[in-house]
Amino acid sequence: MSETTATSTPPIAAERIAFVAAGFGAAQDALKALTETYDHVDPQDADVIVALGGDGFVLQTLRQYIDSGIPVFGLNRGSVGFLMNEYHTTDLPERLKNAQLVTLHPLLMIAKTLDGSTQESVAINEVSLLRETYQAAKLEILVDDVVRMPELICDGALVSTPAGSTAYNLSAHGPIIPLSAEILALTPISAFRPRRWRGALLPHDAQVVFRILEADKRPVSATADDFEVRNVVEVSIHEDRTRSFQILFDPETNLEERILKEQFAP
Fold first, then answer.
1. Residues 197-209 pLDDT 10s
2. Residues 124-181 pLDDT 10s
3. Which of 29, 55, 226, 250 is catalytic?
4. Which domains does the chain have, with CATH numbers?
5. How far is the C-alpha of 101 from the C-alpha of 191, rounded, in Å?
6. Are 98 and 9 within 8 A, CB to CB?
7. Of the candidates 107, 37, 33, 104, which has an alpha carbon nearest to the alpha carbon of residue 71?
8. DSSP for residue 190
9. Alpha-carbon 137 to chain mean position
10. Is 115 an annotated catalytic residue?
11. Dihedral (C-alpha) 20, 60, 73, 244: value to the nearest 10 degrees?
């Protein structure tokens, strides 16, 4: 994604803090501890939103407040926590003051369904297509209105941002992409034919269209992060330059460093 920026100090004050939390026990316990320790405001009135949970919850929070311009600082109370910071209750205002701000642009998914309806959603990590039944999906893939793959027989395929390249994309054997790279990953999921196709790296401004072949016989769903649309017939994906989200990291564990380290992980 182009124009990815990172600064050592947020361009806004971090005096008004809002806390939001996932529904499970560890996140709710953290919410209680932090709201008892620090003054806080409602999210719409905040300079920064502290999200307590796992990666899935911070993605939901970023998407919910994407048009607000309010940065999100995640504290990990989940499992992997790739997009999160280490949880502890001390010196939170100082951590926010010194946090590194990363500004990114999401993908926009436009999904058309068998019943003729159209649904849209943004995705911070990836847009993925998956077969709904025991039968493999058959996909035609267009890039910038040119058919690049007439038929891909597979479990599915995805388009990933650099920020999402270490998530589902990595599990599907897609490439890890540095944050500053102006590219997207197009990655097949369990491709059967062509068997040796490993996907493609695309310019960040490319428009990808998946057309589902035999959609009534081989139903496919499309998911933008955690927003799912069932029984799609065509899915269009492009980077949405009109919108952005901001996420904060402790300087010593910033997102660029995490992505770099992941390439050398055992």
1. 999 999 999 999 9
2. 999 999 999 999 999 999 999 999 999 999 999 999 999 899 889 999 999 999 877 8
3. 55
4. 5-105+244-262 (3.40.50.10330), 107-239 (2.60.200.30)
5. 37
6. yes
7. 104
8. S
9. 23
10. no
11. -130
